[in-house]
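In practice, a research group might receive sequence data for several interacting partners and want a quick structural hypothesis before committing to experiments. The following worked case mirrors that situation: the sequences arrive first, and a predicted assembly follows.
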Amino acid sequence: MFSNVKRLLIGPPKKLQQLREERLSKLKALPILSSDALSSVAYGYQAALSEIAFIGVAGLWIGLPIAAVIVLLLIALILSYLQVIRAYPNGGGAYAVASDQFGPIAGLVAGAALLIDYTLTVAVSVSSGIAAITTAYPSLLPWTVPLCVLAIFGIMIMNLRGLNESASIFMWPTYLFIFSIFTLEIVGFVHLSHAGWHYAQTPPFGVIPKEISVLLILRAFASGCSALTGIEAISNATPQFREPTIRNAQKTLLWLGLLLGLMFAGTSYLTYMKGLQVNPNFTLLGMLAQSYFHTGFFFYFIQFTTFAVLILAANTSYSGFPLLAALMARDRFMPRMFELRGDRLGYSNGIIVLSILAIILIVAFNGQTDALIPLYAIGVFLSFTLAQTGLVKRWMKTKPPGWLWRSAINSFGAILSAIVTVVFAVAKFSQGAWIVLVILPLIIYFGVKVRRHYQTIADDLRINITQVKPSPHKTIVIVPIAGINRVVAGTLSYALSVSDQVIAFYVGFDDEAIERMEEKWKQWNTGIRLVTARSQYRSIVRPLMRFLNTVENWEGAPDHIVVAIPQFVTRKWWHNMLHNQTSIMLRTILLYRKDIVVTTVPYHLSD
Amino acid sequence: MFSNVKRLLIGPPKKLQQLREERLSKLKALPILSSDALSSVAYGYQAALSEIAFIGVAGLWIGLPIAAVIVLLLIALILSYLQVIRAYPNGGGAYAVASDQFGPIAGLVAGAALLIDYTLTVAVSVSSGIAAITTAYPSLLPWTVPLCVLAIFGIMIMNLRGLNESASIFMWPTYLFIFSIFTLEIVGFVHLSHAGWHYAQTPPFGVIPKEISVLLILRAFASGCSALTGIEAISNATPQFREPTIRNAQKTLLWLGLLLGLMFAGTSYLTYMKGLQVNPNFTLLGMLAQSYFHTGFFFYFIQFTTFAVLILAANTSYSGFPLLAALMARDRFMPRMFELRGDRLGYSNGIIVLSILAIILIVAFNGQTDALIPLYAIGVFLSFTLAQTGLVKRWMKTKPPGWLWRSAINSFGAILSAIVTVVFAVAKFSQGAWIVLVILPLIIYFGVKVRRHYQTIADDLRINITQVKPSPHKTIVIVPIAGINRVVAGTLSYALSVSDQVIAFYVGFDDEAIERMEEKWKQWNTGIRLVTARSQYRSIVRPLMRFLNTVENWEGAPDHIVVAIPQFVTRKWWHNMLHNQTSIMLRTILLYRKDIVVTTVPYHLSD
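A structural hypothesis for the assembly, expressed as tokens:
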């Protein structure tokens, strides 16, 4: 059953050769690797303003200096990451850099921060993308959460099908979004110049409202920093660029910085000039578009390209999270199941886990982007800090030409990132950042425990092949039966095939049923011993367990106690749920509770 | 792992003796059996008014005649159900009556209608209960869906723990709710009389607004009939009453009718006098309470008792649905898994399926009670119709004293119910009733198919015990291995114990790995044959399947092909997810795809 549904949704399996990726041209790399960063324009400034929204119109101007500082931070980070590209042309990101420079535990910290960050990227991008749609169609507003869940489900299915992320179709949302925002900015600035660089509704600048405090400004700044998430993607993907890879990746990163800076600064400035205030039902960017294009075609065009680029941004986490989880599983910090590739060559477990976590976040925070922001960006800036610090250490050690100014740049980047991380953790603590500060150490603790466990097991399992050899032991087979029929006969035949000690085990709910069974068994006359038990409970599990305990304590107990359970093999997939429920239950309980060999013997149903 | 979590949430297993229920006194039966019916007061009149809400104040008076007709319908149904109690003192409800009088297919129709109805009772009651809370605390409004899901989850856990529904604690919500509503009505009518039976805000009566149409009135009536859902509960539970059971059940039903009629009529009238209009953010009942008690203690008291009685009403479906599903499974209309009792003697599968369906409804309809109403009540009135018609047939056949007027009453009840069903299906079709009209036949079709399938299987499995006897066959054991270690040695030992034909099977991802393995195998020198394969995919499933196909087609192929898979038995529950992922995958695929005996051989990890 499951396999058919899966096949339908996910498609036939892929060959390993298909895995080899083509190299990216700059024109293609830019949109594909920068959707996460550029799409932050859709929520970054709004996240900052929503912290000081309660002040009203008088506080709107404070957004501008905050935006200016964020742009400066952007420039510093771009300079830093140009160095990362040079130092790590094989990519790898913060996990690789931190592991490489400071050892596995620092790597684990960076990895945990990134896993949290990837999850929040999905939740924030999807909720913000759906907000773009509900801004265009307010009647959809009550359906925010279902729409978000649907979007995540869609992205998950696409990724389980094995998405070719470098397909040209993925260029379009980003380019169209860039086009949308620049058109909006050009129209806005032309309009603004005609209006004499001042609108009637432009709020006053520079008057400090009495409600403002340093904490509020720091909070607004921290929230606004969510506009910088995703700028590390290009450096992580350096090896995917065409030759000369380093130069091409650096040029692309410069372009990203330029575009992001202009888009963020321009929309923030126009939002201020228009005097727009945060509204729970509409996005600021949508209101800005509407103030220039009303509800004309271009307004809807902007909303849809915003939606598309945000979904694409969420999708980038679907390559990042599963790959990182697989790398961490290879290093034994995560369960090995993250290393298993599905039929379609994707890391299915990572994809599914990411989707579940993102859906939990969306539901818990009711699909509200602004409510998710306090959890976001803290992981990003923590991993920025670790990557930059690692780089400084590397420059100090290898001392290449220009290492002094290189480490100066990266030190600056590391210090800035560290400051933002601390500001974020302190200012946002009570708003939700504490959740991250609790979960992050838990992931790290879990990773350490997992690694230790795998190490112990590996030592435990190692054998000296000259000494330890397989050899046969004595076995007994127990066959639970509910009556005498063709399936029971088949299962008993199997039992007789593998052992000369076979016991049929019957559980009756009353004495009469047991007597009838014993009578019938005598008539069948198979030479096989029947053991019966009466159940106080209506379940056959308990009596069977008791019986197995007894057998284990027999004198001269066999080395292997086998329980043989029949399994109906049905012709139609849905017939499966009509059978085998008891055997599934038995199997599950026996697998996890007892030192028992569990055998399922198939029986083919003719219908 | 699962078992520990389960134990924690659900508690230790119960004995069968505990199943026997105590008989109920009237004082206890009334609140416990009528919470579903009485709680309908919380949403019935609002559901009716919301259909004509768009007309505004001018349409408010139309609610009153509709409420009057619903009260008349209530009286007719109470009279009918007094007969049902006399005719079926053993209870059983519409499924039993319809099966008994018209055969299994009519029973299946009634059963399917009731299953839908139970599910909607949970969804409607929970969403309405949470609405009572959000009316009291509007800041919780954005969390409607998460709160509903949490409530359903809580009810599910309670029921999996095995709720003693007749516990005295379950009397309180209903009595407190009755007390609340009557206090509200008394205060209201006293206040109203002081005001000269007219408020300033009382809307005009009797002027027909031009927007009204017959369809709208029918829709409002149909929605209002949701106030009558649940009145069948007492007749279903007749055998639980103390002697004289019939008289006691009938007296209780009369009390239910009286209370429901007074509560529904009184609150509806006051709602009209106060000129209250439907508001998406507040319940009508809550606004009515607030209009008399402002935000004083008694307003919150009413909101909380409303919430409690609605949660209790949702809980009644948790005894109804699993029991009905188990009855239908016993009659082979439903998968047998619904017959399995959990450790705590509840029908766990029914409880879980009901919760999942209710959560899907809540999420799909965004927790909006008024949006769920068009799906509700159609199943109730369909089963009312079937039960009443069955009763008429029974009176005709058995002809007890007074059979003529008895069948007259029930015919009247059947015709009224049938009319409501049709009105509902037609008037509400486009609003959502079509969903029920699609799903109902699907459930019936599914039930028929299931029954036919089980019948075929039973015929197929029957054997002549003098002819068919179990007998041993030839077996071969295949052990998939990923290297040589203690686990592999253990699994091979088991294989050697049950068969003299054992093959180890290794999948390598490149030629080098395969060569290394073959070399090492030669050194181990076990006498067991090693077969290797190279994987184009990174999965070991495909090569194993190919190999199993080959073995099946060997000359003199064995009767049983056994695949032996090691299973790590871990000390700590969470270690389970660190191991066994590959073996779970292999086992699942082999169980459903191939004619293979699957054996799991436990290996105890020391850590």
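Before designing any experiment, note the following. The beta strands of chain A are 475-481, 502-508, 529-534, 560-569, 597-604. Chain A has a mean pLDDT of 86.
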